[in-house]
Specification:
By secondary structure, this protein is an alpha/beta fold. It has helices spanning 60-71, 107-115, 124-137, 157-160, 166-172, 181-195, 248-257, 261-270, 273-277, 285-293, 297-321, 331-336, 338-345, 357-360, 385-396; strands spanning 2-8, 13-19, 24-32, 40-45, 51-54, 85-92, 103-104, 143-147, 203-209, 213-219, 222-226, 326-330, 367-368, 377-380. The chain binds adenosine-5'-diphosphate.
Amino acid sequence: MKILVINCGSSSLKFQLIDSDTEKCLAKGLCERIGIEGSMITYAPEGGEKKKTETPMPDHTEAIRLVLEALADPETGVVKSLDEIGAVGHRVVHGGEKFAESVLIDDEVLKAVEECNDLAPLHNPANLIGINACRRLMPDTPMVAVFDTAFHQTMPQEAYLYGPPYEYYKNYKIRRYGFHGTSHSYVSKRAAEVLGKRYEDLKVIVCHLGNGASISAVKNGRCVDTSMGLTPLEGLIMGTRSGDIDPAIIEFIAHKEGKDIDGIMEMLNKKSGVLGLSENLSSDFRDLEDSYNKGEERGIRTIQTFCYRVAKYIGSYVAAMNGVDVICFTAGVGENAPLVRNTVCGYLGYLGVTLDQEANHKRGEDIVISTPDSKTTVMVIPTNEELAIARETVRLV
Ligand code: ADP
């Protein structure tokens, strides 16, 4: 079956068409600046040439219409007719406590997703717009919602509750939800497969280090803790997000600089992280590594601070699971930055971790990067959220 996977943001939309029999991507692309002047669609059939076209996209319905047109284009398309698309899988950011699994979309599900909007006001409304636009254009095609939060719903209460009064949990459902769940689930399962071990027997820590970064503890196939919280701002230091801070810093800066809450949240989400720590050098680890290798203080301090935080979380999840068998690195930084993996693993001597430096410099494959005598196995597993969404979609339709 051919599955269209859609990841819809407020002004952008990423798509992939996946053949679920071969699990190969047939085509992928991106619509940018939807509803803004200068909108653009990028379309790349597998093995073919990538094409960028500037064309008006006043709304998401038009963006999805253009995606479908590109997929069925007589020359560069990958399907003869849209009937070949058996189902659509939509990434949905926040499923609150309502969704511990992916679901087949109907009106009731959409209402429940809408009820989660206040938990993710920037993301969920955009996801819903994408789903509604798709339903309008493909009314007879089954659609599935795959939630970023769902995999983490197995966390025990002591991991998801915060310290403020319990009434905030009761009244507003303020708690840890976690994100990147599709990736944490895919990578931890894949690690077990590659090692030829039973998923249910393993304690796995997944370090999803991309522009957004989170880490999770997966014990016997169930997530028991994760570093992102009510929102994706908590936890690791990220590309532009601060991660954990003393909450009183907010008041301190507000007084010092006369900022309001929106100004401070903008700073913590967009101007912090490795971008802010490097004094605006870059949020991209390729630039930071260059700076580190040149011996520049700002590159060194940024990478060291980032890696220290990852190592500290690994330690806390070893405590949470009373041990760890496998540590996995994934996403843009986790898959491509040997320096980051090496620095993080430098803190893990107490787990008997030793890295195979040659393996640590390989790229693009599921691979063990620890030595055969390392007491804890360390792996790089490239994440594939689109494939995971396509698999969930097939499972439900
Ligand atoms: P997201 O999905 O959160 O946008 P990705 O997982 O795609 O992020 O990761 C993007 C980040 O990965 C980039 O910002 C960059 O920091 C890092 N990255 C990508 N390629 C490399 C590389 N070759 N070496 C080091 N870092 C890289």
